[in-house]
Design a protein that fits this description.
84 residues; mainly beta; globular
Length: 84
Amino acid sequence: METQILQPVEVIAYFHNLKLEIIKFKWKNTIYNVSQLVSKWKVLSGNNFEYHFTVICKEQGVICELSYNLNDFKWELVQLDNLE
């Protein structure tokens, strides 16, 4: 991914069998429907971890990196790129 965003987003997600399932997120008044979770990893952020997810939104034709910060419980759109 090439386009770094680093902006807050609203996310709808739930836990299923101890796994986080991201359904959709909203950025700049656009709803992005997550069709596939490609990868996930965690990064040390202060005394806690920040979780990162790479997701594909086929309907909108994008691949994105989202992060969830355990310190403030906020989601962020880290990167966004068009699917090719």
